[in-house]
Structure formats: structure tokens, C-alpha cells
């Protein structure tokens, strides 16, 4: 691949353009909003010059409901030899592409499983897709050339290709992406009119659960509209479990020992199911999940402290697998939670303590 065009310079499109440009690809940028394309170009994502001859690959980076029409227009103009999209839903766009009579031999659906709470070109990052799955949904008549072009795109962006059927993809993302987004928003909505004292007690748990609730509602309406029935099915199943959990909690609050025993069993059952489901989420580099142990260190809220802590861990020969920070509401300190291999805990604690760090039990 030497040339490409990105049609739609939002977060995903601009991030792909930045990744390709960094690898020496000449990337043309188009957007219905010329200011967005110019913004992406100013970030180094590519150029807004008119395309004089077909490029190697066109990346349609628009909402699912627009994929068919935009692809048809791109093919009518002869923009590229091969085409793909990055929409988060695949079945609807595929059907529309067929209805509009697009050339499906030169088109393959795609969906990089990456994103951020922010949207637009200014939120884009060249490394957004590194190590992330990138789903490809070829049709029966997708040409080998088109598949190879899409695979090269995935490789250039540092992602991992996953070939799936479009319908299976939509069911999968409903479960692991779309329904969790709504659940996060529903939990965060409980905080909207909550007492200020309650909100000030918020810790890392509620921050983790509500992080993606900061996402752009308009963008998510577009996504959910294209996969509404499947997401509704997932939430309906969740509602059954939620009602069961409510019933168990009511039993726990009852006076009778038998009711409390029933409630305890119900809550424990759902928690254990949660344990089992969470344990199935792939771990580092897609490997089976690993149980790490956490070392908690208090650090001052000042420049360079976190960097110094990581350097100390490196000197101790310990690899930090994950990190989280719980900020104190009343003091200028943070509790840094370093996730490390169980065998490394003693070494890390010993070194940090010797060097004067405030390691917490």
C-alpha cells in the first residue's frame, strides 16, 4: 500500500490516517465538514488535496447508517481500487451496500475494536489500534485483493485481524460493547441528582464502572440505532438477572432466617457467575487472564512522582502489568495500585520501602 483515502475524519478515521501516515503512506482526507478534514490535516494525518487517480484503499469512516451511501458515492467517483469501512455495526451496512448495487468484490466490512470517550479529530491517536482486535467481515464475493488490502491496513495500524460473519459480529459487540455502554450510562445517571455528599464519596469502583458514560450521546445513538434489536435482547437478559438480584436483596432485608438464607444464596450465585464471566476476558496480549497482586503506594500530587515510581519498579526488576490511581478527595495525594506478578510482590515492596516510598498494606 502506498496511497489511501480516509472519508470521515472523526476519532477513528483520523487515528487510522495518523497511523498510516506514520508508516509512509500518502493519505488523502475527506469529510462532509471541510473544517474537520483541515483539522485532521493540521495534526499530520494527511492531505486534503484532490485525488487525481485511484488510491490503493479507501477507508469509509462514517456512522453505520451512512456507510452504504458514502461507499456508493466513493465507488461512483472511482476513488480507490479497494474499499473498507470502520463502522461498529456490520449487518445493516452490508444489506444497504447490496441494495444500492455497490461493487461488493472490492469492498470488505471492518471494525477496529478501539475507541475513546472523546470524539472528533482532536481526540485521535496514531497508536489507538495497537494490539487491538480489528474485525473483518468479507462477503462471499470479496476479492482476494480486497481482503489483502484490508489485512495490510490492520497490520500497518498495529492491530490484530479477526475474520467474522457480520451477524455474529453484531451479536458479539452488543454483548461486549454496546450493552456495557448503556449500563455504564444508567449507573452514571443515578448520580445526576444525587446528594453532593454522596458523590464526594465516589471512589475507584464507581469511576471504573462509569468511565465510558462520558461518551458522546449523539455518536452512540447512531451506533445503537444500527444494532438496536440485538442490544435490546442482551439488556432483556440482564433485566432478568437484575430482577432476581433485587428479589435476593429484599430477602436479605427480611426478618426471617429462611428469607435471609435465600437472599444470601441468590446474591452469592450472581457474584460467582460474575467471577466466572470476568475470568474469561482475555489477559495481556490476548493470553489467558492472569491473576496479579496489587502493591499500593501513596504518592504526592506533583509532577514527576509517578515517573519516579515506575523507575524504581524498573530498578527492582519488576514489570508493572497494570496501574490504577485512586485520588484522595481531601488531600493532595494519590494511592497508586501497581498490578504485578505474585512472585514479584516481595521484591517490589522491599525495594520501594528501602527507598522511602509509602507502601500501604
TrEMBL record:
<dbReference type="InterPro" id="IPR003099">
    <property type="entry name" value="Prephen_DH"/>
</dbReference>
<dbReference type="GO" id="GO:0070403">
    <property type="term" value="F:NAD+ binding"/>
</dbReference>
<keyword id="KW-0028">Amino-acid biosynthesis</keyword>
<keyword id="KW-0827">Tyrosine biosynthesis</keyword>
<dbReference type="InterPro" id="IPR050812">
    <property type="entry name" value="Preph/Arog_dehydrog"/>
</dbReference>
<dbReference type="GO" id="GO:0008977">
    <property type="term" value="F:prephenate dehydrogenase (NAD+) activity"/>
</dbReference>
<comment type="pathway">
    <text>Amino-acid biosynthesis; L-tyrosine biosynthesis; (4-hydroxyphenyl)pyruvate from prephenate (NAD(+) route): step 1/1.</text>
</comment>
<dbReference type="InterPro" id="IPR036291">
    <property type="entry name" value="NAD(P)-bd_dom_sf"/>
</dbReference>
<dbReference type="InterPro" id="IPR046825">
    <property type="entry name" value="PDH_C"/>
</dbReference>
<keyword id="KW-0057">Aromatic amino acid biosynthesis</keyword>
<dbReference type="GO" id="GO:0004665">
    <property type="term" value="F:prephenate dehydrogenase (NADP+) activity"/>
</dbReference>
<dbReference type="GO" id="GO:0006571">
    <property type="term" value="P:tyrosine biosynthetic process"/>
</dbReference>
<feature type="domain" description="ACT">
    <location>
        <begin position="294"/>
        <end position="361"/>
    </location>
</feature>
<feature type="domain" description="Prephenate/arogenate dehydrogenase">
    <location>
        <begin position="1"/>
        <end position="283"/>
    </location>
</feature>
<dbReference type="InterPro" id="IPR046826">
    <property type="entry name" value="PDH_N"/>
</dbReference>
<dbReference type="InterPro" id="IPR008927">
    <property type="entry name" value="6-PGluconate_DH-like_C_sf"/>
</dbReference>
<keyword id="KW-0520">NAD</keyword>
<protein>
    <recommendedName>
        <fullName>Prephenate dehydrogenase</fullName>
        <ecNumber>1.3.1.12</ecNumber>
    </recommendedName>
</protein>
<dbReference type="InterPro" id="IPR002912">
    <property type="entry name" value="ACT_dom"/>
</dbReference>
<dbReference type="Pfam" id="PF20463">
    <property type="entry name" value="PDH_C"/>
</dbReference>
<dbReference type="Pfam" id="PF02153">
    <property type="entry name" value="PDH_N"/>
</dbReference>
<comment type="similarity">
    <text>Belongs to the prephenate/arogenate dehydrogenase family.</text>
</comment>
<keyword id="KW-0560">Oxidoreductase</keyword>
